[in-house]
Design brief:
Blueprint (H helix, E strand, L loop, with lengths): L1 E9 L2 E6 L2 E9 L2 H10 L5 E5 H6 L5 H10 L4 E4 L5 H9 L4 E4 L1 H5 L1 H11 L4 E8 L2 E4 L4 E6 H10 L5 E5 L11 H10 L4 E4 L5 H9 L4 E4 L1 H5 L4 H14 L1
Parallel strand pairs: 1-4, 1-12, 4-5, 5-6, 6-7, 7-10, 10-11, 11-12
Antiparallel strand pairs: 1-2, 2-3, 7-8, 8-9
């Protein structure tokens, strides 16, 4: 299981939001590229980046910061936030992003998701399923749809999607542990790789997710607050994988 450090961008800064609330923001660093290099130095093999302004407004507003991160590190970067069509997905892949994460468009413009899969390949497309109480949220979690997480995943599989990120938005940034039951239910219904975000607070949480067989786990608040040591966490999961 891969552990992805999260770099959330707003106004060019590296920030964290509590439960996705734009009014509950903590700025951690003014140099996102330096933060990315710091996590690589601690053993990160993949990076998770979100343009929060883009997620909310539908227009990517942190393009310079994203480009700086991609230029600064030599590990794969997956990017979400404001990727609403296949053309933008292609542009991001061309600039060096490894995988694009599509969230809102999966609900509002599923044809664009299918086209993105066709244009850049399923290996480079992830659908982000952000849910509260099982219902998918969109537009930076400001709107709640009438579609369940499992139904959306099934619909996306029909369009060729082969990888998902699942976030329980009620737990994101709270250090209250992942929603293991929801993750297990999604895994049982979707036989494709799942990366989990939201609520991770400890190495025990990561071990629990690894036992569920998920492909990856995204850590934000835990590593920024010091609740979780990234280097130790990566070593622990690597040892667990080798032993298992």
């Amino acid at each position: 299981m891969d552990i992805y450090p999260a770099i959330d961008l707003r106004n060019g800064h590296c920030v964290r939001l509590t439960q996705g609330d734009y009014d509950r923001e903590t700025v951690f660093d003014d140099d996102p590229a330096a933060v990315a290099k710091r996590w690589v130095d601690q053993g990160a093999r993949k990076m998770h980046v979100v343009d929060l302004d883009g997620a909310r407004d539908g227009v990517r507003a942190n393009a310079d910061a994203v480009a700086a991160i991609v230029e600064a590190i030599d590990i794969p970067v997956q990017l979400g936030g404001g990727v609403r069509d296949a053309a933008e997905a292609s542009r991001l892949i061309d600039m060096g992003v490894d995988r694009v994460i599509i969230g809102t468009a999966a609900i509002e413009a599923p044809d664009e998701v299918q086209k993105a899969v066709e244009d850049v390949g399923a290996d480079h497309v992830i659908v982000g399923i952000d849910a509260r109480d099982g219902m998918v949220q969109t537009r930076g979690w400001l709107e709640t749809s009438e579609v369940t997480a499992i139904d959306l995943a099934r619909q996306m599989v029909e369009l060729g999607v082969r990888r998902f990120i699942y976030t329980d938005t009620s737990r994101d940034g709270t250090l209250t542990h992942p929603n293991f039951d929801a993750v297990a239910e999604l895994s049982d219904n979707v036989r494709y790789p799942i990366i989990v975000a939201g609520g991770i607070a400890s190495i025990d949480d990561l071990v629990g997710l690894a036992k569920l067989g998920v492909e990856g786990a995204i850590s934000g608040m835990a590593i920024y607050s010091g609740a979780l040591d990234l280097k130790s966490a990566i070593e622990t999961i690597d040892e667990m994988t080798t032993a298992g």
